[in-house]
Amino acid sequence: MSQPHLRTVVVLAAGEGKRMKSALPKVLHPLLGRTLLGHVLSAAAPLAADRTVVVVGHGADQVGAHLAEIAPDATPVLQAEQLGTGHAVRIALDAVPDATGTVVVINGDVPLLRPETVSALVQAHEQAGAAATVLAAEVPDPTGLGRIVRDADGRLEQIVEERDATSAQRAIREINAGIYAFDVPRLRDALGKLSTDNDQGEEYLTDVFGLLGSAGEPVTVHVAADHVETLGCNDRVELAALRRLLRDRINEAWMRTGVSLLDPETTWIDVTVALDRDAVIDQNTQLRGGTVVGTGAVVGPDVTLVDTVVGAGATVLRSHAIGAEVGPGASVGPYAYLRPEARLAEKSKVGTFVEVKNSEVGPGAKVPHLSYVGDATIGAKANIGAATIFVNYDGVNKNRTVVGEGAFVGCDTSLIAPVEVGAGAYVAAGSAIAQDVPPGALGVTRAPQRNIEGWVARKRPGTVSAAAAERALRAAEGAPVGGGAASEGEAIHGEAESVGGASAAGDTATE
Ligand code: UD1
Ligand code: MG
């Protein structure tokens, strides 16, 4: 029976948002993965409108550029002077002269609005055959908002701005949420009749309701089930409050799908993030952008992931990652920094104070401590000793390092790119490797060690060291041969764990 309606969406985003006190236009402020404008546009997305018009004014270039990125099909329309919400809608409709059917108008600063609520508003409006329908909500504190004034029968009479309201009208707690559905031809007609006879001298979109109502046109109110959805954002205190509300909404939704959040109040997940069942997110964790966390993975505490994919069963502890990939069962942190194109294959390990950039760490390979890995390919099951630095930058160019499968790089080594350590090769601790090490070879660049006996007694007499040395030497003289002291091999090994001693590489890497 009813004809399919052509639908238009108009978003009002020309205001400056003075109270934000920001160089950034209000609608571009970010809120858990989208700008305020982005949130509003996604609330309207399920309407599948034929046309979306965004009225821009303050920061029009910036808003227009952002719009081109997030909604290239939307049309920005410039409102050079902000002469009121009625004026804004009038010029928006001028830009779509062929529009008919329903137009949905949304203030650009209501980011918690749900798509379901917008759809319900439109459905109620179209079913009632109304000329205009306003989304209203009963709020605890209506300060600053337009009030819904109803007649004795409960029918909408008019919408009154607070500054133009009588004290009786100010006591009304049912407010205009700033989201509306209109019948386009009747709206156009009413917009042509708006006056600026009000406290702000502006054309108020809300006056359309009084005008249409008194002309006998049906105007209706659709009450939002949850007033939180209608909260606007006028300053940064309100923005922070909206962020907490949205955080709770997002977190609750994830918990209901089977994700464990150990401390939801300190867990901040962008709307754009995806989490698999049985992922565990520990406290103080931020998951941003296109981040994905696989099933059984444990992320946190104290982790920030931006555009990072974490595979099933991986762990990421007290670390920061951006544009990285953590393979299934891999282990990251504590205190790791993964930068763009860091790709950690399954069951690999990137440990404490390790930075990885534009590098592949192969399956089961380990970089456990204090290393920089830049522009490298590390083969499967290779072991990179503590404090290994991949020297990727010669001051002009970035160069690559390849470490073969099963290679073993001793502690405190520089791998000076471009260079290759072959499969199964060893590099002795403390080496600076600038030439390829063939598969299975030991690369070593250290000068032989010399011990100058008695140096401390001669050069540092009277010091703590000299006294300790003297005691040790006396004890050694008095000790029975072969008893008490560790054998030479054990002593070197024990020392090598921490300082990278003089033995072969096998003794000098940490695990
Ligand atoms: C408006 C409503 C008020 C409602 C409230 C809900 C009017 C007259 N009043 O008041 O009843 O309770 O929203 O938040 O509409 N804008 C333009 N061009 C303009 C003026 C405004 O694009 O010339 C945009 C703003 O950027 C903003 C939106 O319209 O996104 C609303 O404008 P704002 O000044 O915030 O209106 P309120 O005083 O909040
Ligand atoms: Mg406002």
TrEMBL record:
Keywords: Acyltransferase, Cell shape, Cell wall biogenesis/degradation, Cytoplasm, Magnesium, Metal-binding, Multifunctional enzyme, Nucleotidyltransferase, Peptidoglycan synthesis, Repeat, Transferase
Catalytic activity entry: alpha-D-glucosamine 1-phosphate + acetyl-CoA = N-acetyl-alpha-D-glucosamine 1-phosphate + CoA + H(+); N-acetyl-alpha-D-glucosamine 1-phosphate + UTP + H(+) = UDP-N-acetyl-alpha-D-glucosamine + diphosphate
Annotated positions binding acetyl-CoA: A386, N392, Y393, A429, R446
Gene Ontology biological-process annotations: cell morphogenesis; cell wall organization; lipid A biosynthetic process; peptidoglycan biosynthetic process; regulation of cell shape; UDP-N-acetylglucosamine biosynthetic process
Entry cofactors: Mg(2+)
Chain coiled-coil ranges: none
Highest taxon above the source species: Bacteria
Localization (cell): Cytoplasm
Family matches, as NCBIfam families: glmU, PRK14352.1
Protein name as catalogued: Bifunctional protein GlmU
Species whose genome carries this gene: Micromonospora krabiensis
Gene expressing this chain: glmU
